[in-house]
Amino acid sequence: MLNNDHLNKSEIKKRLLEKLNTISGNQADQESQIMISYSAKKENYIDVKDSEIDKDLINKILKERIKGKPLAKIINEKGFWKNIFYSDDYTLDPRADSEILVEQILNDCFKIKKKFNFLDLCCGTGCLGISIIDELENSFCDFIDISKKALNACKKNIIKFEKQKNSKLFHSDLFENYPINRLKNIDIIVCNPPYIPTSNYLNLNNETLYDPRISLDGGELGIDYYIKIIDHLINVKFKGSLYFEIDPIITENMYKYLLVKGIKIDYKKVDYLSLDRLIKITLPNNN
Ligand SMILES: C[S@@+](CC[C@H](N)C(=O)[O-])C[C@H]1O[C@@H](n2cnc3c(N)ncnc32)[C@H](O)[C@@H]1O
User: Fold this and answer.
1) Do residues 147 and 96 share a domain?
2) If you take atom 2 of ligand 1, which residue's CA is the nearest one?
3) Inside any domain, residue 2
4) Does the residue 179 lie in any domain?
5) Tell me: the pLDDT tens digits for 143-190?
């Protein structure tokens, strides 16, 4: 722990790194910077002055972190894309892997000049939809989640990033309470559904298990949500584009299902670790 010695920012960081190396692995450097900037109420480590660092607060955070609680769950914050999002016990902490969805959707949208309507389905913190509309002027996003508490977190982020005029929240089991008329006006659905096969769920590492089960468990093969979503969208003849987060753990079963349904994959993308992470698909009624 940090003691009462007078320590400057880089000395504190060095001490934190010593403590975090075993628990946080290759994230230790980033986590030590986050702890220091959080304690100083600054968004960036570089802006922190020595006098602003709250060592008592860092000690408290470190104590929890050493017990294995993820940093984001201790400080209720997680950096994603270009912002820091509120996250809590009821939300999946935003993952860097998911940023490829934002990057790719923005790439596709920048090619067309229009006002887009998005739907962030299974929104959690809202990190996907909010990051997208933050970069596309005049665009609008609906957010759906089955968890009222996750929607509360999403609302906090919408307020934090001043997107109240460009967003609407829906408490719904997938499309159950979502007006069909709104769906007709959606250009792009972005969705990172729960996709861990149930049998793999309990073998997840302890830190992942801090995220709510409802955000992770995707049924027997991990593809229950994709099937329900796609079947519904085919039924209602959805005309827009569909971007899903995927994972190598489910790709084989997912591709089999898409083949059987005659659904075309427009393209796939890999994440920073070269793992399958995104598919864009076109539904049969769009061909
Ligand atoms: C993997 S998390 C994704 C959160 C966020 N979009 C992200 O990428 O960080 C899945 C989210 O789906 C929500 N969810 C689970 N079942 C749902 C359902 N039947 N209808 C709507 N949302 C659901 C969970 O509450 C959780 O917030």
Assistant:
1) yes
2) 215
3) no
4) yes
5) 999 999 999 999 999 999 999 999 999 999 999 999 999 999 999 999
